[in-house]
């Protein structure tokens, strides 16, 4: 069983890589976002980026830094198939998954203006924000010394493979295929 974790900036193409792995490579998808939405709804909170960040940080603080990803990993083990876990946001999650073996972390990034347009087009419940809020949210998630909070900057730096997604789908898929040939 191969596990691929996906990290990256807001709107960079994490979901695009996930869909490609699911549809073309038969990976099962385990979503941190979906996990958090269930938790947010249990707490009757609004489904937005602030709630996601807050609930994720609370769960990690209450349990341990890899708590959410560990729960998703356990689901993947039961299924026993190649899996993609999206979206890895803390170094503790990466440490946990690397200890399990046969794990690779993919990081994806793109120009901020391109990413902002992408999130506006996808229009999910957490994407109805202006460009300044988009940049502020990202800055908040990039660094921290608290192991229970998001540190996308470090996650991206320690990724096994990095993808620049300023181009089209075909270019991104070609990069993913190149990497898969190395690890599968």
Biggest sheet, in brief?
5 strands, parallel
Strand segment tally: 5
Structural class: alpha/beta
SSE pattern, N- to C-terminal: EHEHHHEHEHHHEH
The proportion of residues forming helix, as a percent range, comes to 55-70%
Low-confidence stretches: none
Give the CATH topology: Rossmann fold
pLDDT average, as an integer? 92
Strand order of the largest sheet: 2-3-1-4-5
Q: What is the CATH top level name?
A: Alpha Beta
- Summed up, the domain count is 1
Radius of gyration equals 16 Å
Shape: globular
Summarize the structure.
With 184 residues, the chain is α/β, with parallel strands linked by helices.
Structure in words:
With 184 residues, the protein is of the alpha/beta class. The protein has a single domain (3-166), classed as Rossmann fold (3-Layer(aba) Sandwich). Helix content is 57%, strand content 14%. It has nine helices and five strands. The protein has a five-stranded parallel beta sheet, with helices on both faces. Helix 2 (32-42) crosses helix 3. The mean pLDDT is 92.
What topology emerges from the helices and strands here?
Layout: E1 3-8, H1 14-25, E2 28-31, H2 32-42, H3 49-62, H4 67-79, E3 83-86, H5 91-100, E4 103-109, H6 112-122, H7 131-142, H8 152-157, E5 161-164, H9 169-183
Parallel strand pairs: 1-3, 1-4, 2-3, 4-5
Please tag this protein with its features:
184 residues; alpha/beta; Rossmann fold; 9 helices; 5 strands; globular
């Amino acid at each position: 069983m191969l596990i691929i974790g996906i990290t990256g900036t807001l709107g960079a193409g994490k979901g695009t890589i996930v869909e490609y792995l699911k549809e073309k490579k038969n990976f099962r998808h385990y979503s941190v976002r979906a996990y958090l939405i269930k938790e947010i709804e249990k707490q009757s909170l609004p489904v937005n980026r602030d709630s996601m960040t807050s609930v994720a940080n609370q769960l990690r603080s209450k349990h341990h830094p890899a708590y959410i990803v560990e729960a998703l990993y356990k689901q993947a083990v039961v299924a026993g198939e190649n899996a993609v876990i999206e979206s890895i946001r803390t170094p503790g999650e990466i440490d946990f998954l690397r200890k399990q073996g046969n794990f690779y972390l993919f990081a994806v990034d793109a120009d901020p203006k391109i990413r902002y347009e992408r999130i506006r087009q996808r229009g999910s419940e957490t994407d109805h924000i202006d460009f300044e809020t988009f940049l502020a949210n990202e800055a908040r998630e990039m660094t921290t010394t608290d192991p229970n909070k998001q540190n996308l900057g470090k996650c991206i730096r320690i990724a096994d493979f990095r993808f620049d997604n300023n181009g089209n789908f075909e270019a991104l898929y070609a990069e993913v295929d190149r990497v898969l040939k190395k690890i599968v």
